[in-house]
Design brief:
There is one protein chain. This protein has 437 residues and is of the alpha/beta class. The protein has three domains: 29-231, 2-enoyl-CoA Hydratase, Chain A, domain 1 (Alpha-Beta Complex); 240-368, no CATH class; 374-431, OB fold (Dihydrolipoamide Acetyltransferase, E2P) (Beta Barrel). It is 46% helix and 17% strand. It has helices at residues 2-17, 42-57, 74-85, 105-112, 141-159, 164-172, 179-184, 195-201, 230-238, 241-260, 266-284, 289-304, 313-328, 341-368; strands spanning 30-37, 62-68, 91-95, 101-103, 115-118, 123-125, 176-178, 190-191, 206-209, 212-215, 222-225, 382-385, 395-398, 401-406, 416-423, 426-431. The strands form four sheets. It has a six-stranded parallel beta sheet with strand order 8-5-3-2-1-11, with helices on both faces. The N and C termini lie far apart (130 Å).
């Protein structure tokens, strides 16, 4: 009997120790990870939505979003927040690496997370007011928009049980705080040095997902990293005003070179590619239509300089309009992204101005120079009188050819002469001065 009990015990132990006998608690655990390092734009919002869907399909313990952003587009921020608030899988937003920030639109996303975390040496805040409605911003309407944005931020913070007062101040006063202050003010939940430490520290934490309480089991979980496709990475990379402006100026320069030096092909081809990328960027970033008009007028003046001798005035006017137009091009209430004047726009415009100025100078000089084709090329040429030349006529040898010539002052044979004009195949000459070449 004892032997039979022992055999049964061994059998049961073997069964329970086999993969088929694993308990739910011992089942392999997975955390899906993505990185959003850049602006919050339509591509980033789509990537987040797709990643949430994939994490849910994998029955992942959580979606870990490593975030580093200066801000972004209001519509994309709202879409990202909605996706996180309605996610069927816990979303952990982690501001990392050291030196990273979740500024402006990133603050909304961090506060919307089921778990908000930051690495040492990171920052959150400066959530300047962005238009979250459809009304135009201007005058008293700006205050209404600020109230609406602050209320939206407070609502997110309250849903996650975080500091709603600070959330409102982050909008109204554009506050920016470090990870230590954020933890003390209960803006975030955890400060962790790296992703593995974060997953260990939030293990066992209970969060509400779709109205139901859920316990995170992230310690020792396998981490699967999701990636954007190539096309999405390209659009994401160019979806910043600084990059878009550089693409536009590079396109303008390439097309300008091709226009002034037809047949080079490569500058025109490169300019066309950059211009296409610029328009792709404007699909993702809200732009100011009035500023686009200034940019167009600036280009018209730059082109006009090639056909009208204005001694650079049209070119200078075009550069001024282009500068103001590009500076204001992405200055809209629908986005907190702006063109950096000191570090991007000014150096780029200066480079274009210098190069374009050289082109304009050469074009103007060639236009003002005496014609250098046909008989007109002989004007200013040196020659030798082969006979006495007077008002009645004579013979000269110029540019390897014999010519009939006249002179207001008599010129002796074998004297050097200078061609003053050409009329009816007759050269008007004068005697060359000593030392004149």
């Amino acid at each position: 009997m004892t032997r039979r009990v022992a055999v049964v015990a061994i059998f049961l132990g073997t069964l329970l120790g086999s993969p088929a006998g694993l308990s739910v608690a011992d089942a392999p655990r997975v955390v899906r990870r993505i990185v959003i390092d850049g602006t919050i734009n339509p591509t980033a919002a789509t990537f987040l939505r797709t990643s949430i869907r994939e994490a849910s399909a994998e029955d992942a313990e959580a979606l870990l979003v490593e975030l580093n952003t200066p801000g972004g587009v209001a519509g994309s921020m709202q879409e990202s927040v909605r996706q996180i608030l309605n996610s069927p899988v816990p979303v952990v937003v982690y501001v990392t690496p050291r030196g990273a920030r979740a500024a402006s639109a990133g603050t909304f996303i961090l506060l919307a997370a089921h778990v908000a975390a930051m690495a040492p040496g990171t920052q959150v805040g400066a959530a300047r007011s962005m238009q979250v409605g459809e009304a135009e911003v201007g005058g008293s309407t700006r205050k209404e928009d600020e109230k609406e944005t602050a209320a939206f931020m407070e609502s997110i913070a309250k849903q996650r049980g975080r500091n709603a007062d600070w959330a409102a101040k982050a909008v109204r006063q554009s506050l920016l705080i470090t990870e230590d202050a954020a933890l003390k003010l209960h803006v975030i939940d955890v400060v962790a040095s790296d992703a593995r430490e974060l997953l260990d520290r939030i293990d066992g934490r209970r969060v509400r997902v779709m109205g139901a309480e859920r316990e995170l089991r992230t310690r020792g979980a396998s981490v699967i990293t999701g990636q954007m496709g190539f096309a999405d990475r390209l659009i994401d990379a160019i979806s910043h005003p600084n990059v878009a402006v550089l693409l536009f100026l590079a396109a303008l320069l390439g097309l300008y070179v091709e226009f002034t030096h037809p047949g080079l092909v490569f500058p025109g081809l490169l300019g066309g590619v950059f211009l296409h990328l610029f328009f792709l960027a404007t699909e993702a970033i809200p732009y100011n239509a009035t500023a686009f008009v200034l940019v167009a007028l600036g280009i018209v003046l730059l082109v006009a300089e090639l056909f009208v001798t204005s001694f650079g005035f049209l070119f200078a006017g075009g550069i001024v309009l282009l500068t103001f137009g590009l500076l204001l091009l992405f200055d809209t209430p629908h986005s907190d992204l702006r063109v950096s004047f000191g570090s991007i726009l000014f150096p780029a415009i200066l480079a274009v101005s210098i190069f374009g100025g050289i082109v304009v100078y050469n074009v103007t000089r060639s236009r003002l120079a005496p014609p250098r084709m046909g008989l007109a090329m002989l004007v200013g040429a040196m020659g030798v009188a082969r006979s006495e030349v007077s008002e009645q006529g004579g013979k000269v040898f110029v540019e390897g050819e014999w010519w009939n010539a006249v002179s207001d002052e008599p010129v002796r044979a074998d004297e050097r002469v200078v061609v003053m004009a050409v009329k009816d195949m007759v050269l008007k000459v004068r005697g060359a001065q000593e030392g004149e070449t």
